[in-house]
Amino acid sequence: MSRPARSALRGLGLLELLLAVVVLAIFLGSLALTSSSMLRMSVASDVRSKAQELGATTLLAILDDLRVSGRLAPFPYLFVDGAADAPFDAHDHAPAVEHASAGDPDFGPNREIVFLHPADDDRDGAPDFDADGGLVWGAREISYVLVTESDGVNALERRLDGRTERVLARHVERVLFDDYESSGFEVPLGSIRARLWFRVPDGAGGFLRHQVEATVGLRNGRSES
Q1: Mean pLDDT of 91-120
Q2: Model-level pTM?
Q3: What is the dihedral of CA 81, 146, 182, 86, to 10 degrees?
Q4: 3-state class of 144 per DSSP?
Q5: Average pLDDT value for the chain
């Protein structure tokens, strides 16, 4: 084989090698982008599932709590952003820090609640009744309030007589309890509507919004004096 022919073959082999390298680089880059995209989608899916689970379990706990409460003037008592008036000033607290901005779906004041449970002095798991067949109400006041913890995260607390019993959920941006009057007569008489807005961190400096709501009828569903 002549020298020019051998040179041409070597040139052709080098060109094929360069093309193969370019194709491989494009393939690897595409694979990296696809993997990164799939990872982001997986993380977003995990955060969404976490937010949905947090919302569902928190709302269920609240509904179970309210379902056994009732209307006994002046209960349930609703107050805005921690500003509880006498005789409910034991539930007064500093308002939670608002992270949302005007125009955001979770922007606005918080409306918190104080309510009673029926008494169960004999601890049989059933409410007590008086001689006339009326419910006997317990003396301890239960409340749900939104506060900002030391790390800057908003938390929904369940309190007894104004003292924290437990933290029900963190990353709650806003809470809104409504009755017949505060809702503009949207909520049925003798019921309470609970609405919660969450901001769950996504691990990348952002967050995912999630909102849940439900309406529950109170045990007696009517005012008592």
Answers
A1: 95
A2: 0.78
A3: -60
A4: strand
A5: 86
The pLDDT value recorded for residue 221 is: 54
User: Beta strand 154-160 with 191-201: parallel, antiparallel or unpaired?
Assistant: unpaired
Residue 225 scores a pLDDT above 50: no
Q: What is the DSSP track for 46-88? A: HHHHHHHHHHHHHHHHHHHHHHT---BTTBSEEEETT-PPTTS
Query: What residue ranges do the domains of the chain occupy?
Result: 46-217
- Average pLDDT on 16-35 reads 69
Q: What is the pLDDT of residues 52-73, one digit of tens each?
A: 999 999 999 999 999 999 888 8
For 170, phi then psi, to 5°, come to -105, 170
Return phi, psi of residue 109, to 5°: -70, 160
